[in-house]
């Protein structure tokens, strides 16, 4: 797989099969260190968003559409319905990585209208403390999502940067229990 911290491998194991839909929010470059590139190669389709304009690289390397925008201000309710792959209002995978804009971007997303099956969301606890993580956790736990991999560590133990969530309505919880973890290195999870 191709993501920096095995998010794509995790998603492929939690949602087995050769297709799905994704939102890559804070996608960065289209290939290197991208959380959805390998999924797309398996037949997944979706949309990618980044505040930096990677349009030229994206069109030359990817099938899915890239949107250069500030996701803290993006009108999700108006724009997502334009894409028929999201008509059922259930997104298989959301990769959420917008660094210091996480809370604003998270608040702007219409979680009241769209559900996800799996989300990896960066909170950078090791760098900015607990506030972002706590905000996300409170909201998603109230919505019934399950925090399967808490405080995933990136490059070394103690670098807790991300949480990996699942929706028990769509994910076989017995089969994914083997991934349950707290403060583990991503390479030790998958």
Helix and strand arrangement:
Layout: H1 7-14, E1 21-25, H2 37-41, E2 45-50, H3 55-61, E3 65-68, H4 76-79, E4 90-96, H5 102-108, E5 115-122, H6 125-128, H7 131-142, E6 146-153, E7 160-166, H8 173-176, E8 181-182, H9 186-189
Parallel strand pairs: 1-2, 1-4, 2-3, 4-5, 6-8
Antiparallel strand pairs: 5-7, 6-7
Query: At CATH's second level, what is the architecture?
Result: 3-Layer(aba) Sandwich
Q: Measured on Cα atoms, how large is the radius of gyration?
A: 15 Å
Adjacency order of strands in the biggest sheet: 3-2-1-4-5-7-6-8
Note the main sheet.
8 strands, mixed
Number of domains: 1
* CATH class call: Alpha Beta
Could you estimate the helical fraction of the residues in percent? 25-40%
Coarse structural class: alpha/beta
Distance between the termini: 11 Å
Count all strands and give the number.
8
Strand content is: 15-25%
CATH homologous superfamily (4th level) name: Vaccinia Virus protein VP39
Q: Looking at the structure, what is the overall shape?
A: globular
- Low-confidence segments, given as residue ranges, are none
What is the helix/strand order?
HEHEHEHEHEHHEEHEH
Which short descriptors sum up this protein?
Rossmann fold; 9 helices; 25% strand
Write structural notes for this entry:
This protein has a single domain (7-189), classed as Vaccinia Virus protein VP39 (Rossmann fold, 3-Layer(aba) Sandwich). It is built from nine helices and eight strands. It is globular and about 35 Å long. The chain has an eight-stranded mixed sheet, sandwiched between helices. β2, α3 (55-61) and β3 form a beta-alpha-beta unit. With 190 residues, it is an alpha/beta fold. Helices cover 29% and strands 25% of the residues. The mean pLDDT is 94. The chain has helices at residues 7-14, 37-41, 55-61, 76-79, 102-108, 125-128, 131-142, 173-176, 186-189, and strands at residues 21-25, 45-50, 65-68, 90-96, 115-122, 146-153, 160-166, 181-182.
